[in-house]
Design brief:
The chain has 130 residues and is an alpha/beta fold. The chain contains 3 helices and 8 strands.
Length: 130
């Protein structure tokens, strides 16, 4: 068994697509219309085009707002992405205007940082433990 797909709820799929592809550097995998305005929109790492997909899922369900607001209020990231160098990625993303809620922090064998994805979520980046 392995993880094939996971998701983040987003307020605006077009805005999320721009952020996750143009800023974070993911590439679009699937973009299929669902209903009148929603899409089955997934992105993947350019390094693993057949790897785990991230669904940019519309945040339309009433429970989503309460859930996400509680996580953001507590400073809890909804998802975590692995990077080779957190400090370098922090500088790169800051240069692109990304707002961080936690600067790089060394925590034992990993370094983490947390940013606002501009779509309603906090996302953590972390180095892979060696």
């Amino acid at each position: 068994m392995k993880i094939h797909l996971t998701s983040v709820f987003v307020d605006d799929q077009a805005k999320a697509e721009r952020f996750y592809t143009e800023v974070l550097g993911f590439v679009k995998k699937h973009d299929v219309p669902v209903g009148e305005k929603d899409r089955w929109l997934t992105v993947v790492s350019p390094d693993e085009p057949d790897g785990t997909e991230l669904l940019l899922e519309p945040a339309g369900h009433p429970a989503v707002k309460t859930f996400r607001d509680a996580l953001v209020e507590e400073g809890i990231p909804l998802a975590q992405f692995a990077v080779d160098d957190v400090k370098a990625e922090y500088r790169r993303l800051q240069g692109l205007g990304v707002r961080f809620t936690q600067e790089p922090l060394e925590m034992g064998p990993v370094t983490t940082a947390v940013f606002d994805d501009s779509c309603g979520n906090l996302i953590q980046i972390a180095t892979k433990p060696q």
